[in-house]
Amino acid sequence: MAFADLVYGLYERRLRADLDPARIPHHVGVILDGNRRWAADQGSPSAHGHRAGANKIEQLLGWCDEVRIDVVTLWLLSTDNLSRPVAELEPLLAIIEQTVTDLAATARWRINPVGALDLLPAEIARSLKLAADATKEVPGMLVNVAVGYGGRREVVDAVRSLLADHAARGTSLDELAAELDMEHIAEHLYTRGQPDPDLVIRTSGEQRLSGFLLWQSAHSEFWFAEAHWPDFRKVDFLRALRSYGARQRRYGT
């Protein structure tokens, strides 16, 4: 074993020992950023970076299993990404489709697609739904795969769903306006019924959410990693959990 590997292993065990089991987040959101920049640094095409990033996902979910996280949300493709050139978008969609299919095939996690699936090519949307159907009885961790996801679009879709629901019941707009509150909208989000994310991790040095879980992250803690997503290591993940566990969550107070 190389000396660097020995040091890394010791550091990883120390970080793991520092974690308080009572202060592990229930729901972790991850913005998997930096695949293209990672590929560019290596002089490789973007697809190479996306494949490397996809290969990292199962490792991350294994790390989450080890510390007994209940829900993970992975932002794989934003609504803005759908406007990329076809030559780049088609390989990326194919990689995402294969990744989600492979995750479902492990039968370790419940796969739940979140996003505007109607904006995706029909075959991609169908594959995501098949992955969800195939894993709906799996007792393991819930994994939201955010594909064609945008926080503003989610809120708009939630309001549309709310209005349609009440219209079907015969509720007038005046009656709805009189009783409308935040919970009514929350009940129509893509993640309805789930706990809000306690911790949001973003890789590649960007320190913004870009609309990720816009509604749900109002009281989330954030942790930003400098590493591009393909280079994200288990020690980075454990450092994020240690940082979260050391914080005093105030929920806006």
Provide the fold topology.
Layout: H1 3-18, E1 27-31, H2 35-41, H3 46-66, E2 71-78, H4 86-105, E3 110-114, H5 122-135, E4 142-149, H6 151-169, H7 173-179, H8 182-186, E5 199-202, E6 221-224, H9 234-246
Parallel strand pairs: 1-2, 1-5, 2-4, 3-4, 5-6
State the major sheet: 6 strands, parallel
- Strand-and-helix sequence, N→C? HEHHEHEHEHHHEEH
Low-confidence runs of at least 5 consecutive residues:
none
3D shape: globular
- Strand portion: 5-15%
Oligomer: single chain
* End-to-end CA span: 49 Å
What is the CATH superfamily classification?
Answer: Decaprenyl diphosphate synthase-like
Strand order of the largest sheet: 3-4-2-1-5-6
Q: What does the radius of gyration come to?
A: 19 Å
CATH architecture classification name: 3-Layer(aba) Sandwich
Quick check: average pLDDT?
A: 94
Q: How does this structure look, described?
A:
With 253 residues, this protein is an alpha/beta fold. It has one domain: Decaprenyl diphosphate synthase-like (Undecaprenyl pyrophosphate synthetase, 3-Layer(aba) Sandwich), CATH 3.40.1180. Helix content is 48%, strand content 13%. It has 9 helices and 6 strands; from the N terminus they run H-E-H-H-E-H-E-H-E-H-H-H-E-E-H. Helix 1 runs parallel beside helix 9. It is globular, with a radius of gyration of 19 Å.
Pick out its properties:
alpha/beta, Undecaprenyl pyrophosphate synthetase, six-stranded parallel β-sheet, 253 residues, 48% helix
